[in-house]
Every structure is written in C-alpha cells, then in structure tokens.
C-alpha cells in the first residue's frame, strides 16, 4: 500500500471512529495527525462542552495531544486528517504549527448542508490554507456522511434532501 493509500485508509478509519463517537453522544468530527515518519495520533474529538474550552475542536485536540506527547516538532510536515473540513481556527493552528497538508472527507459546504455551518466569509483559499505546503484536499471516502446522518437521526432531525441513503 502506498503512503497515499494508507492516508485514505486512515481517513476512512477516522470516519468510522466518528460514527462511533456520534453514537455515544458526540459530534461528527474526528481529527488524526500522521507524522512524516508514520506516527498516527489517537483520534481527537471535540471537547468544547466537556472542558469549556472553545478552542477544543477535534483537529486541534489531536494536534495538541501530539505536540504534548512527542514535542511540537512532530507536527512539522505532518498530515492532518479530518472527517469534516477544519474550521478557520483549526486551519490556522495547523498552518502555524507546521502541518504540511490537510485531507478531509466532508467539505465545509457539505457539513453546512448537514447542519454544521462553520464557514467564514474569508475568501477561498484562506491565508491559512495557502500556508499549508501541501495544501488542503478533499477525499470522498466511503460512508463519509454516515456520522452526520447518525447525528441527525439520533436527535430525530430530518436528513437534508441530498439523496443520501447509505446507512
Ligand atoms: Zn476547528
């Protein structure tokens, strides 16, 4: 398996983890850091509610955990995998700490359609996105919308009319 296939597999794993997290009452966002030498972080999940820290988004939680455990330099050149495209805060944190590229399963516009609209009015790509050496990339891994659908269904909310059916 090439390194790129490995990243796609890890992104699919993150989506599966996200669905399990939603089934336990969480939000459909998981962030995973993969360092250049292959270190894979534990999945980060949103901890804003539990900690009262408004910056404890899934992706930033994952990046902080790697920096705390292995040193901030571990983030340099690493890839950030995200089940939902990072918000501007997380893009900025990633760019400022040397993350090389971001790969996400669901883009911001699609997340907004599914009830999570955290888009900014910044022009695209944003300065933080441009600061990523490897850029930001969408990968449509299987079942990427499953965590969002599960989130809405558990709350009795209607699914958006997008033809989604793969549950
Ligand atoms: Zn964020």
Automatic annotation (TrEMBL):
InterPro entries: CMP_dCMP_dom, Cytidine_deaminase-like. Pfam families: dCMP_cyt_deam_1. Signal peptide: none annotated. Transmembrane segments: none annotated. It comes from the Bacteria. Coiled coil: none annotated. PROSITE patterns: CYT_DCMP_DEAMINASES_2 (PS51747). Residues 2-131 form the CMP/dCMP-type deaminase domain. PANTHER family: CYTOSINE DEAMINASE FAMILY MEMBER, RIBOFLAVIN BIOSYNTHESIS PROTEIN PYRD, CHLOROPLASTIC. This is Nucleoside deaminase.
């Amino acid at each position: 398996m090439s390194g790129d296939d490995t990243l796609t597999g890890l992104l699919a794993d993150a989506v599966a983890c996200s669905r399990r997290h939603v089934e336990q009452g969480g939000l459909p966002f998981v962030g995973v850091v993969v360092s250049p030498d292959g270190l894979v972080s534990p999945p980060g999940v949103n901890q804003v509610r539990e900690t009262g820290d408004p910056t404890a988004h899934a992706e930033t939680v994952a990046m902080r955990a790697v920096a705390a455990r292995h040193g901030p330099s571990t983030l340099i050149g690493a890839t950030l995998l995200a089940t939902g495209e990072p918000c501007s805060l997380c893009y900025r944190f990633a760019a400022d700490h040397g993350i090389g590229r971001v790969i996400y399963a669901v883009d911001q516009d699609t997340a907004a359609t599914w009830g999570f609209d955290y888009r900014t009015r910044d022009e695209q790509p944003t300065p933080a996105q441009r600061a990523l050496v490897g850029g930001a990339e969408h990968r449509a891994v299987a079942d990427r919308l499953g965590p969002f659908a599960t989130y809405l269904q558990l709350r009795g909310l209607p699914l958006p009319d997008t033809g989604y059916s793969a549950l």
